[in-house]
Amino acid sequence: MPESFFTRVMPKIQNLAELKVALYVAYLVTRKPAHPRFVTYQELKSGICRLYTEFGEETLHGAVGSAVEHGALLRSTSNINGMLEDVYSLTADSQQPPPANIFVLYEQNIALITPMIAEELKEAEKLYPPQWIEDAFKEAVTLNKRSWRYIARILERWASEGKDSGEYKRDIKKDDPDKYIKGKYGHLVQR
Length: 191
Prior knowledge:
By secondary structure, the chain is mainly alpha-helical. The protein has helices at about 5-10, 15-30, 40-50, 55-70, 100-110, 115-125, 130-140, 150-160; strands spanning about 40, 75-80, 85-90.
């Protein structure tokens, strides 16, 4: 959670149930892919009632109402599959901060940080822009290549070849008609 949650939102929260609801909504919303980032009442109810046995319908309804009243959550209505449903999102004061730093990305996507990895991460943070680092982690996770070595190679490649050029320089070769007769196995090919 960002600092603003603790300095602006949390002081307004009046009881433990309200705090649990606000934190659980934050948990659910930050795991959603993109906009609109909201949680339906049903999503909230099914998850939080499973976690906390003391949450009945009345307790949940009161805690959600208090969280909205105190500014921890925003409530709106959305048309979902042809039905109007109450949806909840984080207020501007409780939004996630901009891109996570390299240490958070590593721990969320790969493993706990060891002292040796920490040094490599610090060095990479000095060398590469934050957006590149985040994009490299996304690419590695998408390809299910969850290792720092793989991510470091992506960053090195982008640094040497350009990140957004759309082509990989190492793969660009002029159409060489002799490409099959040169090299290690060229003696096996006849023209």
